[in-house]
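Per your request, structure below.
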């Protein structure tokens, strides 16, 4: 293990700037609609993946149309026979109101379903991620007319389970999940290389989820042209015994249904085409994603993404211009990648050959990288670039950045932390400091640096308060404020806001990594710390403490625009309280049991659970355990619309001198991060969803929306890699018309 101090390593600030989307393939965007809203599978996560796949190609303009959602109000239990009369009267009153409300809700739902028709738009192709309630007759007629007159229709996985009693739908899709004796059961005869009619009394089904090899059956078809004859698909369900009218049916690929996986021992159709009037219908049985599933192999398989995207283009235009991306699966090796990492036309794929940074790292994992070499190691989502903002010696050993109301950046430097493998001098050197960085000419590069405060013991919290900068060091609960009265960038006045000294986890006997962080000023006008022993108020220059219940975590704290608190531990990247910790004692009293301190638990990979949360109130509430819900709050009048596009998160810096690491934030910082794709905005807004990142400036809140006619650039959070420090920024695109 190297004992080289971090202070000798090159540390780099970089800035990620969000750029507008352009179609790199040189063709106009194809308007495509994804229809969802009901499915026996996780349709929200599936739509997110399909949307991301199409967006990554830069070939499509994608919108999402979600079917009307059922709204119901649950009743309450009737009181016991010996209950007081006032309870019985209250129950009857509630029951009357409930019945009236439920009736109104059902009437509104029926009206919404009657008027819902996603086929009236100008889309050239419609993707069905739908398996649920029968559509209104007018909607069904519009769907048939859309395809018959030349529109494209693409069905993903369980969409072929839907509408079993709709004759025109069965004819359009050719084969679907149907019961025995329904139409013909079609399979592929390998020896004669042709489809054949199989059993009459077999019912559609599937075996165990597993990776399987897909064989191309029509190599000259536009969708399959250039696709390897055999390729390995990621873990998925392999449907068997698909049945239907099978008119004008062309099987494009098949896969062997292995009896060892509870399959049929035959080659089953995987992707197939039906010509219907002037239109084209493509059905693929791939793309399974169950509720609560954490493995994305079926949807993130590069083979599936390729077939799906090319199918949508073919269904819409009758032609395929999308290339086969790098990283396509091999005959016996699947390839699983996030959609934005699939290199369509080579635009998102790193060029072959080793960079100087990669060569250095292979030779010596602890090699020092220059800012330019560090830049080459970043993997950026499409639409982002990285630029140098500041480098050593302007900053050293940074762990936290915050901004004051004037845009100056304050950087906490822990210059004594782990300077050798024994951690010599970590808590005794007292050479930590707060740097003040300024971009005086507005070119995006920091050009002035001053030591705002020096001789600190591992500074771990910074909070700008008017012209004061409040600081908390390691091993103490004291809050000390500093300010610069003569404008030279160096603090010349000091004031103790809060004095408590070493206490509990914040003492010399406690590890640096296991102490408080945060000092976050929330919208309820309270200041919070990560271990949640107490919270504070700062009013008229007075710092007041108030005890808090519960234990959160050591690795940082953040909040959203509604005041919901988020935090992290070593194993899960995000936790959140479904109701404010102030009321946890009430739940403890009513439920006779203290609720868990981590109401959100995320496993690998982090999607889709990243956007889901479970109620913390699981102990003794009469309503019972709450179902998982999409994580961001909904607008009261329109549940399909997310009220805010921002989600406050903090991801921990892992202190390590032995292995590479990369993570957002330092152990004491917070980042506000927005991803409208994950948050599932309204169908209209979904068309322009893109990753966006911003950061709050001091205690002054930034607006959460962007005016339709403007675009603004906002500063971002810092994060540290094993060999660098990075500041993330983004330019928020103008809102759609």
């Amino acid at each position: 293990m190297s004992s080289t101090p971090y202070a000798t390593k090159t540390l780099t600030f970089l800035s990620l700037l969000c750029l507008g989307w352009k179609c790199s393939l040189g063709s106009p965007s194809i308007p495509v609609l994804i229809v969802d809203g009901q499915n026996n599978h996780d349709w929200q996560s599936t739509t997110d993946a399909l949307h991301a796949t199409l967006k990554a190609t830069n070939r499509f303009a994608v919108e999402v149309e979600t079917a009307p959602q059922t709204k119901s109000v649950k009743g309450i239990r009737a009181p016991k026979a010996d209950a007081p009369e006032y309870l019985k009267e209250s129950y009857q009153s509630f029951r009357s109101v409930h019945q009236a409300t439920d009736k109104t809700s059902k009437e509104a739902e029926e009206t919404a379903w009657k008027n819902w028709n996603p086929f009236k738009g100008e889309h050239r192709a419609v993707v069905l991620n739908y398996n649920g309630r029968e559509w209104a007759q007018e909607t069904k007629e519009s769907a048939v007319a859309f395809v018959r007159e030349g529109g494209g229709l693409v069905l993903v996985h369980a969409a072929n389970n839907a509408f079993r009693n709709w004759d025109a739908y069965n004819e359009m899709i050719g084969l679907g999940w149907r019961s025995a004796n329904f139409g013909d059961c079609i399979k592929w005869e390998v020896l004669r290389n042709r489809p054949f009619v199989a059993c009459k009394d077999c019912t559609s089904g599937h075996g165990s989820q597993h990776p399987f090899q897909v064989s191309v059956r029509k190599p000259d078809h536009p969708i399959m042209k250039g696709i390897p004859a055999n390729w390995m698909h990621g873990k998925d369900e392999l449907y068997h015994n698909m049945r239907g009218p099978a008119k004008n049916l062309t099987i494009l690929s098949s896969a062997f249904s292995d009896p060892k996986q509870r399959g049929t021992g035959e080659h089953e159709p995987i992707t197939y085409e039906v010509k219907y009037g002037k239109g084209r219908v493509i059905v693929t049985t791939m793309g399974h994603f169950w509720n609560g599933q954490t493995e994305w192999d079926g949807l993130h398989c590069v083979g599936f993404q390729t077939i799906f995207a090319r199918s949508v283009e073919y269904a819409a235009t009758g032609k395929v211009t999308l290339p086969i991306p790098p990283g396509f699966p091999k005959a016996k090796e699947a390839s699983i990648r996030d959609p934005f990492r699939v290199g369509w036309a080579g635009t998102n794929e790193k060029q072959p050959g080793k960079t100087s940074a990669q060569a250095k790292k292979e030779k010596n994992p602890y090699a020092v990288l220059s800012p330019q070499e560090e830049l080459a190691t970043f993997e950026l989502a499409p639409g982002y670039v990285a630029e140098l903002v500041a480098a050593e010696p302007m900053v050293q050993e940074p762990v936290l950045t915050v901004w004051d109301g004037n845009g100056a950046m304050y950087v906490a430097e822990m210059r004594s932390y782990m300077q050798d493998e024994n951690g010599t001098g970590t808590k005794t050197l007292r050479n930590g400091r707060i740097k003040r960085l300024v971009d005086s000419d507005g070119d995006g590069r920091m050009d002035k640096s001053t030591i705002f405060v020096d001789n600190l013991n591992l500074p771990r919290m910074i909070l700008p308060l008017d012209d004061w900068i409040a600081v908390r060091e390691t091993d103490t609960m004291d809050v000390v404020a500093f300010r610069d009265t003569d404008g030279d960038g160096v603090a010349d006045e000091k004031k103790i806001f809060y004095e408590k000294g070493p206490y509990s986890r914040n003492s010399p006997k406690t590890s640096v990594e296991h102490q408080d962080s945060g000092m976050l000023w929330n919208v309820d006008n309270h200041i919070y710390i990560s271990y949640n022993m107490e919270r504070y108020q700062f009013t008229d220059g007075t710092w007041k403490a108030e005890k808090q219940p519960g234990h959160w975590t050591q690795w940082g704290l953040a909040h959203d625009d509604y005041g919901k608190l988020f935090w992290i531990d070593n194993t899960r990247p995000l936790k959140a309280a479904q109701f404010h910790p102030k009321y946890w004692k009430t739940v403890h009293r009513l439920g006779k049991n203290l609720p868990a301190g981590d109401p959100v638990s995320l496993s690998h990979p982090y999607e889709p659970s990243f956007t889901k949360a479970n109620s913390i109130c699981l102990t003794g509430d009469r309503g019972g355990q709450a179902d998982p819900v999409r994580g961001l709050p909904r607008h009261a009048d329109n549940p399909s619309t997310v009220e805010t596009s921002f989600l406050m998160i903090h991801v921990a810096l892992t202190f390590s001198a032995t292995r590479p690491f990369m993570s957002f934030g330092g152990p004491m910082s917070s980042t506000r991060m927005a991803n409208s794709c994950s948050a599932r905005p309204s169908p209209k807004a979904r068309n322009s969803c893109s990753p966006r990142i911003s950061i709050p400036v001091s205690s002054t809140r930034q607006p959460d929306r962007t005016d339709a006619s403007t675009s603004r650039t906002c500063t971002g959070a810092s994060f540290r890699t094993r060999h660098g420090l990075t500041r993330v920024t983004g330019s928020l695109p103008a809102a759609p018309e």
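The two ends are 56 Å apart (CA to CA).

Regards,
D.
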